[in-house]
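User: two proteins, same treatment. go.

Assistant:
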Amino acid sequence: MSAALRLGVIGLSPGNGHPYSWSAIFNGYDAAAMEHCGFPVIPRYLEKQRFPDDAIAGARVTHVWTQNSALSRHIAQATLIDHVVEYPADMIGQVDAVLLARDDAENHRRFAEPFIAAGLPIYIDKPLAHSRQAAIDFFALETRPAQIFSCSALRFAEEMLLSPREVDRMGGISHISARVPKSWSKYAIHVVDPILRNCGPFDNIRNVRARSFGPDGSGTEVSFEWSDEERTCEIRAFGSEPSPISVAYSGPKGAVDTQFKDSFSAFKSALETFLKDSVRGQVSHAVDVIEAMKVLELGAGVFSLQEND
């Protein structure tokens, strides 16, 4: 039997509990410590699983770094990580791959570059960047194909995916209406990725409209058309106002609504895809990431004027 892959995790950005959740999906967790992770939803969906049966086999998070040593030690305690390092680069030579579990895209490159240069596969939390060109520049750093992996885990959420039968029943897809909570810069990717998987590339984008909305102006709405079939799309990020993560698809014969529900399964599927395609294989997802950036940058002029969450 081959040795388990050793993973290092880097975190934590405000409002993002992925260093806890991702590490637990590999390692299992200490229930008492996890109750104090600061993200109440995480222990609630973890307690519905059966560990070690539901953990990802063949890999383990062995090293952790965050900007705060006490926080790093708590993540290690809650998710059974053996080593807390003083500097991120201390992981080089000690791990087989890295999970950059921060969603502040403006800091991704400075954290990722040492590991990319060292030849390590790296999963970079969504969104990789804020623009298509920035994503292209990021992938140009790769020292081998498929070294960089990035996505919203909702790209792999079964409840967000349409079956061919559903598309046929609608008579094709002519309009999409999507909504997410919080900021466009961090959360729009959660619907852009499943839309991309369901509908294909965002070719020939035109008639773009972007505006802020809501009582405090923290919401962002972007609408556009794309493809030769004149498909229309409207995406709303509700800022400080609550919202589900949902996408409604409609066509000439009917409609299908999708809503995100299962965080654990989506995260697990995304992490397993990283191991399969980037760590053990060389299957690149760069094209899909760059396609998603086309839509994310449509709202850049709006969210840059707002205070991001």
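Protein 2:
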Amino acid sequence: MCQVFGWEMPSSYTSPAEEHEAVRTAVGFIDLSYFGSLRIWGTEGAQFLHGLVTNDVKGLKKGQGMRAAFLTGHGKVRALCRVLGLGDGEYLVINDPQTHEQIKQYVAPFSYAGDFKVEDVSDQRRVLSVQGPSSLLVMREVSFEPVPKLAPHEWMSTIIAGHHVVVVGTRLTGELGFDILVPAEGLKDVWDFVLVKGGFHSIRPFGHRALDSLKIEAGVPVYGIDVDDTNMMLETDLADAVSFTKGCYTGQEAVAMATYRGHISKRLSGLRIQGEVIPARGDKVFKDGKEIGYITSALKSPTLRSVIAMAYIKYGFYEPENPVDVLSEGISLRAVVAKLPFYRGAHSD
């Protein structure tokens, strides 16, 4: 077991390398019960949420969703989130566990000033996730209604193991995937049922050590590790989380200024590193002896069989194939800048 932002979760069930391979070649199943969620509704709910997050949630129809972020007034990332449109001005905001309480405390007081409500529904639903090239086959095996190949954040309702659930398209690992939002009382039933039915497609549970390596290969930043409130939104390389045409929202002026300037001071990028040494978080990146960035995450990639890292690289140096050096414990490691993601599954588009 391991601590994941205050939750005790399985680090692995067997071997992290075997679990990683299962997701890349067949299908894996993971418990993500630590995600928090807020339900927002009311006649002014759409306008309220629209003014707080970076993406155009007003345009969401029932069954649609999108990635978004909450920013500070200076345009720095307060939290990353997903927003599902539930219809009739109602939304579900799914938050990372490390920022959920902060966002709840930030959002809730506004409800006294408008015709909308904010409710923490984290205890009502938990999140399980099916990931891998065979994930659609598993979902069709376990769901009452046929599940289509959902786009990221697109969702539908169905029944699994006798429980009403919401199935959301996701690319958390770089593979085709589906998050299952399960009533808390049905968590064990759905978990057991998916594992039994998914056995026909070689499903296997995987833990958070495999999830970490899968996410780095997929270039998925983790809040508190790869992104935090010192980063401007456009530095995170999460362009799909930002609308550049919507009206005013908290932090918009800073985003607009960076967009108008035509470039950002640094950007989250990939590095392919020669040799076997894995740099540590915070290790510095250099070009011709000049410091140009720092590492946020690194590992020996099970899929690529080489050392890779995510790093913030300064403007003028983050073009792919640019040769750089990483200084780790006094050792200079040769590397080249790479475009994220490092890996994208054939069935993920």
